[in-house]
Every structure is written in structure tokens, then in C-alpha cells.
Amino acid sequence: MARAVFDEVWPVMGGGTEITPNLMQALVHNGTYLAGAFIDGKIAGAAFAFPSIKDEIHLHSHMTATLPKFRDAGIGTALKMHQYTWARENGYKSIRWTFDPLVRRNAKLNIVKLGVDVIEYHPNFYGAMPDMLNSGDESDRLMARWDLTDETPLMRPLVTKFPEDCIRIAIPEDIVKLRGEDPAKAKQWRLNVRQVFMNALKNKRELIGFSDNNEYILA
Q1: Which tens digit of pLDDT belongs to each residue from 85-133?
Q2: Measuring CA to CA, which residue among 102, 82, 84, 75 is closest to residue 188?
């Protein structure tokens, strides 16, 4: 059922699947995380994560998806909160995952609701992606780190007052829609955000929040 969610959210051109059944079975059997969210007995979303030893022992959350018809029902937040509790109970100190810096909905969820830190920017992290959601664009990703020290995550309020020396990085309203309507403009957004974000991190700027104008704030 979880694979069906992933395949619907990230349909592969020409058919196929993001992760094969035998590989998922082997991973889950050996301790990876797989959870589903259900409404009236029907699956509405799913999340999949595996252990990693890069930099620190942590849980790497690879896929979290909500079926389109349940997108505004809080399923993504519920799955992440379940993952937070599960990871703490199983001895992890943090969870990491990647997200597209141009997807406004995900940025706001991760930074404001979940209170993650952004630790890296990776240009074209996955290379050319075969699913129709990401096709035609480069797969830039931010690496999020979610600290599990506290019993519940620490939310961040939207930034309304800006430090004098802060860097504000705006993102488009809907990058997926823009890719379909004006690929050249979408690519320009991608390159501009990439340059500013990478330069900011190189110069030791840190993400301090997300603004009420839908901007990343680094100081």
C-alpha cells in the first residue's frame, strides 16, 4: 500500500515504480522505518526512512507522501510526528532528509511547523529524475536536520522582523505549475536560488527561519 502511494505521487514515465517490492521488503525486515496514515480504513499517505552513519548515526527519511485528495488534511505533519517519536524510541539523535528548496509548501512545513535546521545545499542531487513531477528540472535539494533531543519538536514562528544583515531568499508561488507553463522561467528561479543559497552557506550564514513573505531568512 505504501508503494502505491509513492507511485501515485511520483508517477514514473512509461510506468514502473520508485522502489521495488523486494527491496522494500528486505529493508523493512532489517529495521528501516515504514509507516502509513489511514482515513476510514484507506491509506492516505506513507513515509519511508533508513538508518545512516554519515556524519552521525541518524535516520534518513527518504520518502514522505500524501495522496492528492488528502493533501490539506494534515497527513504529512502527522507522519513526520510519528517518525519523530519512533526515531527517539529507537535511539536516534536526529533525522535528516532532502527537500526541493523551491517547493513553498514543503519549506514552510519543514522550517516552521517542524523546526528543522538546513545544513547543506546540493545542486542536482539526484541527477535527472524519471518521475513526471520532477521531469525537466534539475534536482537541487536542501538537506534538513531534525534534532530529536526534546520530547516534541521546537516550532519556529514565521519571521516578521528581519535582522539588519540577513539574507532573504524568495521562492516562487508554485514551482511545479511554473515548470509546466514556463520552463525557462522555472530554470531561472532554480539557478538564482542555487547561487544565493550556496554563497550564503559558504559564507557561514545559517538559516534562522522562513518569513511571512515566503522567503528563507539566513543570518
Answers
A1: 999 999 999 999 999 999 999 999 999 999 999 999 999 998 876 655 6
A2: 102
Query: How distant is the alpha carbon of residue 148 from its chain centre?
Result: 17
What is each CA distance from 71 to 9, 22, 68, in whole angstroms?
A: 11, 28, 5
Q: How many domains does the chain have?
A: 1
Closest CA to 179 of 192, 170, 169, 190: 190
Is the pLDDT assigned to residue 80 strictly greater than 90? yes
| In the block, residue with C-alpha cell 522555472 | 186
DSSP 110: I
Can you give the residue range of the structural domain that contains 107? 2-156
Q: Is residue 135 part of a domain?
A: yes
Q: Measured between alpha carbons, how far is 197 from 119 in angstroms, rounded to an integer? A: 11
pTM: 0.89
CATH of the domain at 26: 3.40.630.30
Residue 60 lies inside a defined structural domain of this protein: yes
